[in-house]
Specification:
Layout (H helix, E strand, L loop, with lengths): L4 E6 L4 E7 L4 E9 L7 E6 L2 E6 L5 H14 L9 E6 L10 E2 L2 H8 L9 H14 L5 E5 L9 H4 L5 H7 L8 H15 L7 E6 L5 E6 L2 E2 L1
Parallel strand pairs: 1-6, 6-8
Antiparallel strand pairs: 1-2, 2-3, 3-4, 4-5, 7-8, 9-10, 10-11
Helix pairs in contact: 1-3
């Protein structure tokens, strides 16, 4: 039985991907289709340390995804059906507290959060729709950056502004980079040989976007 999972992260002008074999902790191939929609669009991918660059001029998400599939097929990595396609989704609002199998109602709920992350969620949705069209019989799973932080108590997620802004417009702290904060704190607990669900950590995600989180007993607080 195939346990390979294709991981997709669609940005505003790029599509990152990796083919994972979680059972063995293996990253079989990974890369990025970048500068999408331009004459300079290209697919950069790596396998076993080797870097390859393939021009895909004017390619958009669907063409980029097809180019990725073609590369994986040529590398004989799709001999068996995928177990799942996982999608990083930046914003799940208050609707999602965990990773979720994508069906029509889930996709609609993700789109309803587009206004909360206008630079990211619409691209995430395009990636999901593209993957669903190319892999119609493969389960699609959404992994939300905000889900880990849904354990925040009201005094932590409410801003000192009129409460109606929260009730009517959803103005609150949602938290970001939740997958990173959860992974980092789990790894810290493992390396320090401390029980994760009875420990406290401060974690920092530093990159193009930065965030910090306090995690107590396995929950973002």
């Amino acid at each position: 039985m195939n346990n390979r999972i294709l991981v997709i992260n669609c940005g505003s002008s790029s599509l990152k991907f990796a083919l994972m074999e979680p059972k063995h902790g293996r990253n079989l191939i990974n890369g990025i289709a970048e500068r999408l929609g331009t004459a300079e669009a290209q697919l950069v991918w790596r396998r076993e340390g080797d870097k390859n660059i393939q021009p895909i001029p004017q390619a958009k998400y669907k063409e980029a995804m097809q180019a990725i599939i073609d590369v994986m097929s040529a590398q004989e990595l799709l001999a068996e059906p995928l177990a799942a396609v996982g999608h990083r989704v930046v914003h799940g609002g208050e609707a999602f507290t965990a990773s979720t199998i994508i069906q029509a109602d889930v996709l609609a709920a993700i789109e309803a959060c587009n206004h909360l992350a206008p630079l990211h969620n619409p691209a995430n949705v395009i990636g999901i729709r593209t993957a669903m069209a190319l892999f119609p019989n493969v389960p699609q799973v959404a992994v939300f950056d905000t889900a880990f932080h849904q354990t925040l108590p009201p005094h932590a997620y409410l801003y000192p502004v009129p409460y109606d802004l929260y009730l009517e417009q959803g103005v609150r702290r949602y938290g970001f980079h939740g997958t990173s904060h959860r992974y980092v704190t789990e790894q810290a607990a493992e390396r320090l040989q401390r029980p994760y669900h009875s420990s406290r950590f401060l974690s920092a995600h530093l990159g193009n976007g930065c965030s910090a989180a306090a995690v107590a007993n396995g929950q973002s607080v």
